Amino acid sequence: MASFSSLSLLFVYISLFLSYSYAEDATISYDFVVSYITASPLGVPQQVIAINGKFPGPVINVTTNNNVKVNVKNKLDEDLLMTWDGVQQRRASWQDGVLGTNCPIPPKWNWTYNFQVKDQIGSFFYFPSLNFQRASGGFGGIIINNREVIAIPFSTPDEDVPVMIGDWYTSNHTALRRTLNGGKDLGMPDGVLINGKGPYRYNDTLVPDGIDYETIDVHPGRTYRFRVSNVGISTSLNFRIQNHNLLLAETEGSYTVQQNYTSLDIHVGQTYSFLVTMDQNASTDYYIVASARFVNESVWRRVTGVGILRYSNSKGKASGPLPEPPQDQFDKTFSMNQARSIRWNVSASGARPNPQGSFKYGSINVTDVYVLRNKPPVTIDGKRRTTLNGISFVNPHTPIRLADWYKVKNVYTADFPNGPITGPPKMETKIINGTFRGFMEVIFQNNDTKMQSYHMDGYAFFVVGMDYGEWTNNSRGTYNKWDGIARSTTQVFPGAWTAVLISLDNVGIWNIRAENLDTWYLGQETYVKVVNPEPTNKTELPIPDNVLFCGALSKRQKPQDVSSATSVMRHESKVFLTLLLMMCAFISILQ
Predict the structure, then answer these.
(1) CA–CA distance, 111 with 560 (Å, rounded to integer)
(2) Which member of 89, 409, 440, 545 has the greatest number of CB atoms within 10 A?
(3) pLDDT value at position 588?
(4) Measured distance CA(1)–CA(532) in Å, rounded
């Protein structure tokens, strides 16, 4: 019989093996069942997209450098992809969840995303990227915490409070899609939701009875980190909490210079985190408000989300008028100046111990310049479309990254124009050919009458300037070259421009798009191709074992061979069998 010391040696050996296999970076796993449920967020029963039966979906809560596995089961009646807004997918555009990199997950199938939140911290969200589905839900928050060895630039809050705000229609995404396909505008939304719920009945005329509203319970004297994402369709929202200051601390993975705001404009696709201290006397509950901006507010009064902040010692219900939004109807510079006031905290450490400001972006030479001009929708071949530089993007049947890997020809062209084309607009599959380790300047020029916001996957770009009018070379003289905020989504005011700088160090195919869903759906997007001329796994991971095939490569797809749960189980089975064989070998030796 084996001695105690021999058995101890066995367990030590197994522990060492396990730590060698898993300890480098922890793996956090989630199962997402994506399905329809019936809900009535605005008092009208409608079909919404839920995850694990919940709307919004669960929060993904991980730590810098964790490996994340999300096994997605598609129980919708149409194709599905999930994208992780702001997660940079370092070396792994295969996991990005947009049509340029991934084939869709068919109905009744499942697929496992497997990515690392490498060198990132902060607040983000996920959502379904196809077929206008985000308009029906399917979204949820993402929190990436600092590693314990990296100090955060403020006292640790008592609690995280994820808040999803967004405009909402009582028609589902398929009906809204039909409206857009028919050449019409969506019109005014039916309301604004806060965490999937309608407004508190602060006004008996504007808000019907019986609507479920969001209540956030707090304790006096504590400080909470509110992580607020605008997951809506096309409406910029002003966020405020009655009688409470919002101390801005972070946005989309960057710590900011800490400043107090009584309210902040949050545009579609943007996420901010605020430190909110419960320093009031709790004579009543307090309103939480998300109201529409840059619209006729007298007409849009019902498009207002209202929740309740309730102290544990609250003495009564909230009542009376809502806290006022900014009174800037005749001052178009107020919101832009607010946006300019958001600065990078250059002395704080982010995901790494070195200060954020040690990357001196303002001293790097620009290698590529693109002026991306947005115009009001146009008609191309009888269809209402949106464009950038006169190009309305057409998603190919074969994803761009997959086409490159298997050398499929005639899927796209890498000649997206640096500026607006002359002649009539076109529907084409043109992408930007980026320079690996280059430094790209992108100017978003919004010549539409509506607020737009733009996002880039795979990167955080530096927002260095914005102003009204037409951008010119002389506009560079106004750039902030020291502490412009690094983020993945920026607003572009109507009749104005926003300039960003991007360090192209992440190999892959990366989507650059309008975050306003209607604008995006009608063609306002492209991709940036970043290729290392020397192929190596150090700059891009190989194609995943569980990759889906479609388009010109559809014959490679095996029925139901799409579950990476299968590949994950295969990997875990190998580990288990290895351990079992080791144990048997040790036991036989010890006997």
Answers:
(1) 10
(2) 89
(3) 54
(4) 58
Structure tokens, 320: 């009376």
* Ramachandran area for residue 91 (φ above 0: left; ψ -120 to 50: alpha; else beta): left
Q: What is the DSSP letter of 551?
A: G
Q: CA-to-CA distance for 518 and 500, rounded, in angstroms?
A: 23
What are the residues whose beta carbons fall under 8 Å from the beta carbon of 582, sequence distance 6 or more? 13, 14, 17
Beta bridge partners of 525: 513
3-class secondary structure, 9: helix
Collapsed DSSP state (helix, strand, coil) of residue 34: strand
Give the whole-angstrom CA distance, residue 442 versus residue 459: 13
Helix axes 564-590, 4-22, angle to 10 degrees: 160
In contact, 285 and 317? CB cutoff 8 Å: yes
d(CA 439, CA 538): 20
- Say whether pLDDT at 571 is over 50: no
Name residue, tokens 């709790």: 282
Residue 570 has pLDDT above 70, yes or no: no
Q: What is the DSSP string of 420-461?
A: PPSSS-EEE-B-EEPPTT-EEEEEEEE-SSS-EEEEETT--E
* Cα torsion angle, 507, 513, 516, 520, sign: negative
- The amino acid present at 277, given as its one-letter code, is T
Phi-psi region of 380 (alpha: psi -120 to 50; beta: other; left: phi over 0): beta
Q: Give tens-digit pLDDT for 165-204.
A: 999 999 999 999 999 999 999 999 999 999 999 999 999 9
DSSP state of 302: T
* Rg (alpha carbons) of the chain, rounded to whole number: 25
Residues contacting 177, CB < 8 A, separation 6+: 131, 132, 521
Q: What pLDDT is attached to residue 14?
A: 42
Q: Does the pLDDT of residue 590 top 70, yes or no? A: no
